[in-house]
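Incident log, structure service

09:12 report received: a user says their structure output differs between two submissions of the same chain.
09:20 pulled the input from the user's history:
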Amino acid sequence: MELGLKGRRCVVTGASRGIGRAVAETLAGEGADVLLVGRGTEALREAAAAVAEAAAPGARAETFAADVTAAEAGEAIVAACVERLGGIDVLVNNAGTSSVVPLERLEEADWEQQWQLNVRGPERLMRAAAPRMADGGWGRIVNVTSSSGKRPSATNVAYAVTKTAQLALSRAYAEAWAPRGVLVNAVAPGPTASELWMGEGGLADQAAAVRGVDREQVLEAASARVPLGRYSTPGEIADAIAYLCSERAANVVGAAWSVDGGAVPYFI
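09:34 re-ran on a clean worker, output below:
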């Protein structure tokens, strides 16, 4: 299927690993130019090399180091994309992280971190990008939320609550900008076999420590709650995101697609 992404100028945040890196590789493989955004310069360089290897002929992979929670980050990232790629057509708000923290142990800083990562950071980026996209008559924005935003998880309530807020933010921006050709949607992954879950000290290890069980028990229990019986892969999430970024998604606006193997057991 031709997605019509060749030559599109894309920003992907949280692009140095996991879902973000897979998204960058997929978009570049479709011929898009991609600005990879993350906090670590070396990790970005490594990711950009992998993206360049996966890219279609002529597609470019650039990097920009930034913390999306900084007040000026939205304008700075979009300006960098315009300067280096010649404009901006696609924005994938993927930056984010979580940890296993029981509700009673969440502190003010935990709530603020998740608010800035999942709501304020994406909002600033959309506010900077959407008018530029509208001026060109075409744009795609995809916010990577979470199944926790649809079915709140006690693993980290601050994360779940702000992911729900991100869904509401996505819908508000979708209604505001669709008349000007900028289509905003969300994707809600479930448990994914990325570094966040599987890496040393990641969510699996943290949950095992909190529950007093071993890592394999945590992974087996999480897989058992998914009708497909397994974790998603970053590439599977990236495929759904790439479609929403494409010409083919011309009639999809304000949607919140679950890409979770059926983990959320209802329609929303």
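09:41 both user submissions now match this output. Likely a transient worker issue. Closing.
09:42 reviewer note: The mean pLDDT is 94. The longest strand covers residues 182-189.
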